[in-house]
Amino acid sequence: MNTEFWKMRTLQDGGFSFERKTIFTSQVLIKSNTDMVARSESRFLGNTMNRKAKKNAMLKEESKEEEEEVEEEEEEEAEEKEKEKEEQKKKKEEEEDGKKKKKRKKK
């Protein structure tokens, strides 16, 4: 229904037509209510989208942190392996030196 028509008729009658006035006011109220509902829905959608975006950002940050932790652990393991290899080399060298010294003493 066209609200402009009802506005004009109500103004022409000087607002005396009770039925038209009530219909017009009810239409205006319905329109304002639907506008309010639409605004609240858009706010709700905006809020949910913001929440989803924040949640996704947090998940990405957590996954990055987990990846960094895994990389750090791998680096630490690699360093430990290198240290073990160096220690084994030193032990072998010490054993060889000890054998050489024993041979020298025997001579």
UniProtKB/TrEMBL annotation:
Biased composition (Basic and acidic residues): 80-99
Lineage top rank: taxon: Eukaryota
Region called Disordered, residue ranges: 41-107
Biased composition (Acidic residues): 64-79
Protein name (database record): Uncharacterized protein
